[in-house]
């Protein structure tokens, strides 16, 4: 219409585009004796216009299309009629009243698409920097599981659309820019979804082998840059949990948080007797959100087991793993349990000056509040600052690997979550001292599993397939009645082809011609004899995150190479020294 201002909303364009495809299709019904009414679908085509305006014509002007114009001319009747056979055009036709039904059936899918597009578009503009607003949003999700699922699907669509554009881009500069944009959007979506998904992002940020560098760089912000809630809210939680006004608990309390994480945030304070402490305050409604998210993950685990996905031949592998995972995750939101873990780690490493674990103040700790010794340090991922302050990055990476070797094989108790947000460096110590902050997720290993991990490391160093099978049996990774020869041949082939190796590996003996020409079993044949105990899944997770930190400190870092020199000492400590030395001598002698 000349002189009339055209709508500028992007949804005008979307609606017109849908109309340009749908209306010609509807109008084709006229060829079989039907004519389509325009009135029932006009509100769908142009909801922004005033009543009585020529709706379809206005929508059509936004997206010109010859097909749409022809469809408009053909769909010009205001009701649906059918002319029976043998009745001339001059005779009146019978109104059947089925036009609105047909239109509704055909228009509803378009309406669903429009509503989905609206949800996806509006969600992209949500501000996630307001910690209190996000806290309220997470709490509301705990009561609205359907809304949470829709938010998850819409977020996946937003990130996926940008990632797809990046994959299709031919210019490398544009490709990198789009991947960075997708990474930023992924961070925003994970924060919107809450603590469980932030945890997922933290894990992925330590896996540069799984995603592009642009995503890793953006996801790193989730390690310690989750939006914080207000200091007033923190004070309110403290007073409710500890039962006293904050000025009766501490002589000084900083309302500005030192750091914010997925489960809570940390505030600095001074106790009445003058000790400087760090207070960890938990977020609201965490258990309700965990109940919702973990129930969904439980269903996924059941489906994986039902269709034998991931662990071939295992009937309850994923279910068992996830059952133990849930136990650890629920313990993580119990700060009393974290306090116990922290005290245990503190005692385990009290004789190692190159490791620092903060002491706990039990009298100021409960389920939702954890008060610890204040241990400042430089973030382990801030390599520029560490070098400037004189830290030895290679030494730090080796010490980190050896700290975990001791946790796995000597102490039988390890932190499953060593991402950079939970690690810092005290640069006042020569070369740097590692500081471990978070012990909410910890796992215990049996004595046999400790032996097994130590033996697996040594078998990879020695390329000893038989010893590796024995170690797997100790770890509980072999099913009862497993054919060890099949597993051994598979491992030997992995050693031979380099699929499993270390920079520290050295073959103790040459392979025979028969061994060199041996055909390895199929993967299916081997996997049916293997299983994954839940504790080993957490070992794998810890090593995965540990590897990300180690390579960040030293690009040449490798876990087995870093810990191999320490293996004999641990064997001696475990009372296996003579057996170990005799075995090493025999392997060298028979080389």
Give structural notes.
There is one protein chain. The protein is α+β, with helices and mostly antiparallel strands and 591 residues long. It has helices at 10-27, 42-45, 55-62, 66-74, 99-123, 131-141, 145-168, 172-193, 195-204, 213-219, 231-242, 246-249, 286-306, 317-332, 335-348, 383-388, 393-411, 447-462, 465-475, 484-497, 513-516, 523-527, 534-553, 559-563, 567-573, 577-589; strands at 81-82, 94-95, 250-253, 259-260, 264-271, 276-282, 355-356, 369-373, 378-379, 413-415, 423-426, 433-436, 442-444. Strands 3, 4, 5, 6 and 8 form a five-stranded antiparallel beta sheet that branches. A hairpin with a 6-residue loop joins strand 11 and strand 12. The radius of gyration is 32 Å and the shape is globular. The model is unreliable at 1-13, 23-65, 68-81, 93-98 and 311-316 (pLDDT under 50).
Q: How would you briefly describe this protein structure?
A:
The protein has 591 residues and is an alpha+beta fold. It is 55% helix and 8% strand. The protein has helices at 10-27, 42-45, 55-62, 66-74, 99-123, 131-141, 145-168, 172-193, 195-204, 213-219, 231-242, 246-249, 286-306, 317-332, 335-348, 383-388, 393-411, 447-462, 465-475, 484-497, 513-516, 523-527, 534-553, 559-563, 567-573, 577-589, and strands spanning 81-82, 94-95, 250-253, 259-260, 264-271, 276-282, 355-356, 369-373, 378-379, 413-415, 423-426, 433-436, 442-444.
Short descriptors:
four-stranded mixed beta sheet, alpha+beta, 13 strands, 591 residues
Shape: globular
* Number of continuous helical runs: 26
Q: Which spans of ≥5 residues are poorly predicted at pLDDT below 50?
A: 1-13, 23-65, 68-81, 93-98, 311-316
Mean pLDDT: 77
Number of strands: 13
The residue fraction in helices comes out at 40-55%
Structural class: alpha+beta
Q: How large is the share of residues in beta strands?
A: 5-15%
Radius of gyration: 32 Å
The rounded distance between the terminal residues' Cα atoms is 92 Å
The biggest beta sheet reads:
5 strands, antiparallel
């Amino acid at each position: 219409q000349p002189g009339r201002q055209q709508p500028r909303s992007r949804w005008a364009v979307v609606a017109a585009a849908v109309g340009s495809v749908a209306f010609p299709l509807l109008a084709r019904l006229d060829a079989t004796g039907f004519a389509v009414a325009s009135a029932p679908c006009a509100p769908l085509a142009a909801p922004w216009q005033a009543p009585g305006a020529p709706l379809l014509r206005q929508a059509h002007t936004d997206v010109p299309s010859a097909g749409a114009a022809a469809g408009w001319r053909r769909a010009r009747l205001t009701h649906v009629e059918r002319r029976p056979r043998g009745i001339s055009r001059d005779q009146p036709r019978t109104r059947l009243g089925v036009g609105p039904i047909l239109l509704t059936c055909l228009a509803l899918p378009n309406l669903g698409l429009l509503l989905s597009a609206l949800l996806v578009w509006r969600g992209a503009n949500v501000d996630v920097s307001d910690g209190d607003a996000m806290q309220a949003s997470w709490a509301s999700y705990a009561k609205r599981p359907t809304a949470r699922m829709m938010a998850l699907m819409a977020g996946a669509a937003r990130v996926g659309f940008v990632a797809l554009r990046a994959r299709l881009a031919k210019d490398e500069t544009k490709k990198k820019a789009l991947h960075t944009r997708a990474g930023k959007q992924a961070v925003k979506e994970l924060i919107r979804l809450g603590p469980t998904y932030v945890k997922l992002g933290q894990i992925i940020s330590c896996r540069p082998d799984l995603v592009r560098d642009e995503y890793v760089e953006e996801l790193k912000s989730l390690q310690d840059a989750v939006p914080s809630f207000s200091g007033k809210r923190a004070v309110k939680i403290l007073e409710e949990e500890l039962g006293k006004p904050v000025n009766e608990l501490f002589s000084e309390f900083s309302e500005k948080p030192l750091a914010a994480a997925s489960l809570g945030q940390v505030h600095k304070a001074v106790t009445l007797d003058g000790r400087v402490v760090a207070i960890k305050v938990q977020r609201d409604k965490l258990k309700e959100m965990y109940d919702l998210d973990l129930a969904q993950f439980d269903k996924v685990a059941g489906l994986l087991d039902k269709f034998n996905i991931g662990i071939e031949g295992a009937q309850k592998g994923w279910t068992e793993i996830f059952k133990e995972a849930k136990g650890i995750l629920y313990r993580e939101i119990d700060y009393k349990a974290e306090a116990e873990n922290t005290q245990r780690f503190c005692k385990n490493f009290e004789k190692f000056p190159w490791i620092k674990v903060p002491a706990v103040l039990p009298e100021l700790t409960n389920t939702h509040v954890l008060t610890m010794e204040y241990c400042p340090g430089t973030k382990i991922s801030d390599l520029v600052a560490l070098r400037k302050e004189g830290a030895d990055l290679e030494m730090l990476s080796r010490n980190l690997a050896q700290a975990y070797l001791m946790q796995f094989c000597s102490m039988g108790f390890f932190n499953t979550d060593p991402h950079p947000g939970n690690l810092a460096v005290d640069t006042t110590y020569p070369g740097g001292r590692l500081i471990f902050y978070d012990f909410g997720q910890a796992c215990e290993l049996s004595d046999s599993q400790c032996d097994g991990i130590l033996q697996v490391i040594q078998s990879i160093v020695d390329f000893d397939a038989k010893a590796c099978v024995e170690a797997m049996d100790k770890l509980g990774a072999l099913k009862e009645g497993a054919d060890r020869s099949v597993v051994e041949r598979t491992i030997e082939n992995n050693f031979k082809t380099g699929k499993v190796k270390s920079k520290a590996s050295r073959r103790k003996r040459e392979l025979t011609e028969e061994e060199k020409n041996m055909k390895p079993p199929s993967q299916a044949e081997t996997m049916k004899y293997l299983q994954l105990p839940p504790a080993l899944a957490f070992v794998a997770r810890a090593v995965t995150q540990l590897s990300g930190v180690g390579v960040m400190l030293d690009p040449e870092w490798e876990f087995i190479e870093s810990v191999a020199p320490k293996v004999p000492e641990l064997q001696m400590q475990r009372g296996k020294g003579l057996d170990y030395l005799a075995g090493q001598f025999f392997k060298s002698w028979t080389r």
